[in-house]
Amino acid sequence: MTPISITRILRSTVATVLTLLAGVALVVLAAFLVATIAPGGDRDLHAYEAAARCPAAPSAPAECRWTQEFTVSGVSLTQSRGKLNRVLLMSADGVRWETFYSSDGPVVDGIHKGDRVTGTIWRGLLTEIAAEGASQKTDDAPADIRTRVLILALIIVPTGILMTIACAWRLRRRAAPAPTPGMVATLGLAFGLFFCGLFSPLPLVGRDENFWMVAAVWFPAAAILTAVARNYVTRKRTQDTAAA
């Protein structure tokens, strides 16, 4: 978002108030999720990882893990955003299993109709397939929701705080005809950090959730954006001083 459009937001009292409310909402949302979901968000994942092998094929959903052979009856890969890759599996007793995957590797992109894979069943769900020494979790595998929530908080909390600060600052000085360079830089940094946060999880594509891997991308990018915002303020103040 350019300084001109950000300035336009801060020139309008209505737009400033709405942006302020949006910033507060982001912080409140993150706080709610961290307080209510994060504490037990990895419970199912730990239960899955600690589950023992079933002594025999379970007749009902069980806490133990059972592995068996499946025949691939269909593979559908997609590049469409928001859609999952699909693999149809057939068990030895003729039961058809439909499984979905968020990425195409390391197993899904290498299997074809008629191939054999080893599937893991837990709580009645097919959670993982393996072939040729590689394994891949299905969309039914338990996820680390706690880490997902913390990553979301990393993305939206700094943005929400800076949006709130910039807009509250402007509303306190609404009698001034135009926002200061500091106000514009602060709100611009807020938007920049938000878009930076959207791209920070890209290293996790096809991998398990990892907060520190996302943070390792986000913090350097945030430092660069902060330096850009500070440089903008310094440059504008120098220009204003020279003009005066």
Verbal overview:
The protein is α+β, with helices and mostly antiparallel strands. The chain folds into two domains: 3-38 and 144-243, no CATH class; 43-137, OB fold (Dihydrolipoamide Acetyltransferase, E2P) (Beta Barrel), CATH 2.40.50. The chain is built from six helices and six strands. A hairpin with a 2-residue loop joins strand 4 and strand 5. Helix 1 (3-11) crosses helix 5, helix 2 (13-36) runs antiparallel to helix 4 (145-172) and helix 4 (145-172) runs parallel beside helix 6 (211-243).
Which ranges are low-confidence, i.e. pLDDT below 50, for 5 or more consecutive residues?
A: none
Question: If you average the pLDDT, what whole number results?
Answer: 90
Count helical runs: 6
Shape: elongated
The assigned structural class equals: alpha+beta
C-alpha Rg (nearest Å): 25 Å
Largest sheet: 6 strands, antiparallel
Order of strands across the main sheet: 3-2-1-4-5-6
Listing every helix as H and every strand as E from the N terminus to the C terminus, the arrangement reads HHHEEEEEEHHH
Helix content: 40-55%
Give the N-to-C terminal Cα separation: 28 Å
Q: How many domains comprise the coordinates?
A: 2
Strand content: 15-25%
DSSP strand tally: 6
Brief characterization of the structure:
The chain is of the alpha+beta class and 244 residues long. Helix content is 50%, strand content 18%. Strands 3-2-1-4-5-6 form a six-stranded antiparallel sheet, with no helix packed on it.
Element layout with pairings:
Blueprint (H helix, E strand, L loop, with lengths): L2 H9 L1 H24 L6 H8 L14 E12 L8 E7 L4 E6 L14 E7 L2 E7 L2 E4 L7 H28 L8 H19 L11 H33 L1
Helix pairs in contact: 1-5, 2-4, 4-5, 4-6, 5-6
